[in-house]
Amino acid sequence: MGEGQGQQVIEKKPGIGDTETYPNYRVILLNDDHNTFEHVARCLMKHIPAMSSDKAWGLTNQVHFEGAATVWCGPREVAELYYELLKQEGLTATIEPDA
Question: Which neighbouring-strand residues pair with 21?
Fold first, then answer.
């Protein structure tokens, strides 16, 4: 075969095959007057993956003393799931785009 024979040149169109990144969202737990420390820490360990007892208690204290704490960050759909699970437990939370 001569040089260049049998080879196919494929032109790549812009945007095709490019990896798009989607923004992450933060699940933020807010302080309230009706949930106990124990309930908050237990819910965090129950619903947020890989949440250790130490981390849950640290976040619970942060919520109490600072008014809010980010308890999870990642894809929007997953953030919405964790938000709903915490809300069903009676916790006060919100979701925001991660800046």
Answer: none
- Which fold would CATH assign to domain 25-97? Ribosomal Protein L30; Chain: A, (3.30.1390)
Tally the residues of the chain.
Answer: 99
| Contact yes or no for 56/45 (Cβ under 8 A) | yes
Handedness of CA 87, 89, 93, 98 (dihedral sign): negative
Per-run averaged pLDDT (10 residues), the chain, 99 residues? 60 60 94 96 97 98 98 97 98 95
**pTM, two decimal places:** 0.78
Instruction: State how far the Cα of 27 lies from the Cα of 74, in Å rounded to an integer.
Output: 9
3-state secondary structure of 7: coil
Name the residue ranges covered by the structural domains of the chain.
Answer: 25-97
Q: What angle do CA 34, 63, 91 make, to 5 degrees?
A: 40
